[in-house]
């Protein structure tokens, strides 16, 4: 079991986002948690569209990368992570309330 609830939430999020190398560091929870960025998945397809839109923007700007575009993408990723972790908290809260 995880040391605390925040570490557990982070583990679940990392499994969902495919950011863990399960060949190197397998975890039991990976039996239950799907990588939402696996090939052909909704998130993989959406990320591919973001990547290509970023490439087109940079091409139009005549640069290999743009700090503002990277900031927008990075902040949206951070917002998604924040919302996902809060959703986990709300799921736990309401699950506990229903169990009582």
Question: How would you sum up this structure, described in words?
Answer:
The chain is an all-alpha fold and 100 residues long. It contains three helices and no strands. The chain has helices at residues 5-17, 42-61, 67-99. The longest helix has 33 residues, at 67-99. The two termini are 23 Å apart. The mean pLDDT is 93.
Structural class: mainly alpha
Give the helix proportion (percent range). Answer: 55-70%
The largest pleated sheet is described as: none
Q: End-to-end span in angstroms? A: 23 Å
Average per-residue pLDDT, rounded, comes to 93
Give the overall form.
elongated
- Count of DSSP strands: 0
Order of helices and strands: HHH
Summarize the structure.
With 100 residues, this protein is an all-alpha fold. 66% of the residues lie in helices and 0% in strands. The model has no long low-confidence stretch (mean pLDDT 93).
Jot down its keywords.
100 residues; mainly alpha
What is the fold's blueprint, element by element?
Blueprint: H1 5-17, H2 42-61, H3 67-99
């Amino acid at each position: 079991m995880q040391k605390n609830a925040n570490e557990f939430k982070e583990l679940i999020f990392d499994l969902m986002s495919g950011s863990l190398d399960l060949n190197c560091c397998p975890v039991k929870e990976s039996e239950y948690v799907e990588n939402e960025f696996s090939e052909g998945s909704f998130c993989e397809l959406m990320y591919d569209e973001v990547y290509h839109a970023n490439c087109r923007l940079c091409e139009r700007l005549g640069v290999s990368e743009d700090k503002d575009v990277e900031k927008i993408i990075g902040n949206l990723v951070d917002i998604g992570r924040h919302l996902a972790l809060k959703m986990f908290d709300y799921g736990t809260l309401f699950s506990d309330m229903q169990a009582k």
